[in-house]
Predict the structure of Lipoxygenase domain-containing protein.
Amino acid sequence: MAAGREKKKHGLKLTIEDYPYAVDGLEIWSAIRRWVHEFINIFYKSDGALQADNELQQWWSEVRSTGHGDKSHEKWISGVDSKANLENLLTTLIWTASGRHAAVNYGQYAYQGFLPNHPSRHTQAHTARRDQRTRRDARKPREIFLSVIPTKGRDCHAPHNTGSSLSHPEEEEYLGQRPGDEHWTSNPEILAAFHAFSRSIAEIESGIEQRNSDPQLKNRRGPANVPTRSCARDPRRRHGRGIPNSITI
């Protein structure tokens, strides 16, 4: 799906350029990686210093042996023995719980809100009998489908529950936000790196909106003309928008 390109900000050239998840996601991934890179370099001046951090090494040992004991001996799981490995590890963890979660989760409401897309149950069993009625109904697949899904009244709880899980409280903090710097750290290097990260996220969100308004990028709106905004914040905090700093499911 992608090939290496040094000139690209994230080092990759997409095979399908009008691919919103990949385009937006790679920009967010790159911003996270730069922030993690700066953060690690503030605390660890060399790989040796990182290897000598017993607390860090014990944390990663617990993640591998307890959290993922079934995969602890896999060769593809690297150790935390270099700054580069730690950078890749932390970037992956942050991306998975933030940008990726928002991108694949927040589209559920719009999709499930139209019942035929995602019926929560079937009220009748499908029959394999080839009797006269079945042969007759086979010519009417729409009628067959509508006869086995629940009524709107019975199934309205499904999109309602989905919408509730995707709503944002007033105090929600999004990726790149941390109100009250003085309560977090007094280290000026960390604050400078984080503020740069915050600006990067704001620029990415602005770029998402610009791409959504480009008529040439048809995949960003689709046939239903619904823009791709899962990873862009909404000032009105409507559900299904933005990348929270935490996940609930």
